[in-house]
Design goal:
Three copies of one chain form a homotrimer. Chain A has three helices and 25 strands. The first copy, chain A, is an alpha/beta fold. Chain A has an eight-stranded mixed beta sheet, with helices on one face. Chain A has a six-stranded mixed beta sheet with strand order 3-4-2-1-5-6. The first copy, chain A, has a six-stranded parallel beta sheet with strand order 8-11-14-17-20-23, with no helix packed on it. The radius of gyration of chain A is 17 Å and the shape is globular. The model of chain A has no long low-confidence stretch (mean pLDDT about 95).
Chain lengths: ~220, ~220, ~220
Amino acid sequence: MKSNIVLFGGGNHLQYSLDIIEREGKYNVVGIIDSVQPIGAILFGYKVIGRQENLSVLITEYGFDAGLITVGDNWIRMAIHDAIIEQLPNFRFVNALHPSVIIGNNVQMGTGIIAMAGCIFNPGAKVGDFTFFATGAQIEHDCEIGDYASISAGTILGGHVKIGKFSAVTLNVTVVDRLTIGENTVVGAGSLVTKSLPDNVLAYGMPAKIIRSREARERFLK
Amino acid sequence: MKSNIVLFGGGNHLQYSLDIIEREGKYNVVGIIDSVQPIGAILFGYKVIGRQENLSVLITEYGFDAGLITVGDNWIRMAIHDAIIEQLPNFRFVNALHPSVIIGNNVQMGTGIIAMAGCIFNPGAKVGDFTFFATGAQIEHDCEIGDYASISAGTILGGHVKIGKFSAVTLNVTVVDRLTIGENTVVGAGSLVTKSLPDNVLAYGMPAKIIRSREARERFLK
Amino acid sequence: MKSNIVLFGGGNHLQYSLDIIEREGKYNVVGIIDSVQPIGAILFGYKVIGRQENLSVLITEYGFDAGLITVGDNWIRMAIHDAIIEQLPNFRFVNALHPSVIIGNNVQMGTGIIAMAGCIFNPGAKVGDFTFFATGAQIEHDCEIGDYASISAGTILGGHVKIGKFSAVTLNVTVVDRLTIGENTVVGAGSLVTKSLPDNVLAYGMPAKIIRSREARERFLK
């Protein structure tokens, strides 16, 4: 029997998260919790059932015992997570992995992960909690992806690459084998990363160069 | 039971179109209509059965009621389409989608589409008629692809990208989220598109820059 | 019944080669032959059974009749192959193709090939012996890949591209249709190849330029 879950976030991420969850067929989505959308609104066939601050009441009313944060910004995913855990320290998060996702031997998957169609996680990879992987992201053997990081469509991480917490490697980037990208760093689309990058920078180009520093909690999505 | 179709075009596109159709297993190809190849010639196991101007006779003789235009040039696909419809306004076109192609929720697929192995169409995408998608093209959520456009192998269109009619986004291009590429525009291989592009230009580079203007019906394939 | 094979090489290539072989389910790996790892050591659950110079004895002891060379360097794969064949001219090599690999019509596959998850070989391609294809390599129609060549993750070879023996096209490279890359040539990560490249060079960039010449047997992996 499918277990009931709730989704936190009614924005851009919702549509494809629902697509993944429906195809995976493991969970029944009882509704969406969002801070902006009107309660009762129907988004892609699912109802906005309330606000996050009423989570305990909603759990009783809708009978779910786990959830998934369907929000694209890496720092906001953490903020939502922290607020949930403050209310309900044992609240459980699930993964949404498109059925086409390939996971090799010895891959350690965290929780709260979303991986879209065509992602490949090669043997020995360690994938942090609340990470997001867009269409066709390719994670080579023995990579380590920090919590709340995101890897965009078509991006290729070479073997033994490490990505820090909250970092965003955007569309169709190539990161050469054995490099480390620090925390809260953003790599611009189409970049070729040939040297390791520190924490808290924006870098892009071919090869990628550091363009400027970044603040903690700075947003990277438009 | 498989329905009978005919293919229009005996050139470079034919081999992989046949591969897709055979694997999809929905259609029986009764033959190829081509303006150059000798009638009776066997191409990849299928016979050239005649010229397009004799379509009505060929339909009776070979018993097909639909077809697919297997030609790479975007403008020539339109010219063939228009000539067919002038003769037979109700002629029907089918799609050829490799079994590995992934189509998300709420995707609107037109007709006459060819999509090669590994293509991914994410939720909310609108895909025009007589479009062509080469190996592993990744169409993110809510993209709109105009009629007779083509997206080459490994190319990644970010979310909400719009591609105009007849435009060709070539090999391994990255188009950043929410940009628009006009009609009859060609984006060169490996480009990173960071700003919207107008109609009737050739652009390439990283980031892509407009190199020159393009004529209507100008060919882009060598 | 699965046939018994041995793997030559206990380094970086071993983990994902085992992953492929286990998922493919055609072969039973009786052990690993390596020149450095201690005999009796267990690597990813498989035992190092001996040295290559004792191959005849090991065949009798472990009952295998075929093998696969699981080494990343293109020249070393050849050196190992040649030493094996000198001892046992009829020794047989198998392929390891991840179950997700797509092979089109009229593709000619050699022997001793490793292809990781998501690779696509389009119709008409000719794939040489002892070649290696990393995650998601896309080989378009009618390509020809020389013996001992390697194509890294996410790399896209356009239609009718030819790659010479021992050459390495590294991560996320784009090679435009109908170009030829010579023998023992290395193309750096993220490059766009717009002109054919001769034998024995290192080239990279966008577009790729020749950076320096290369010696025969020069290594390209760090």
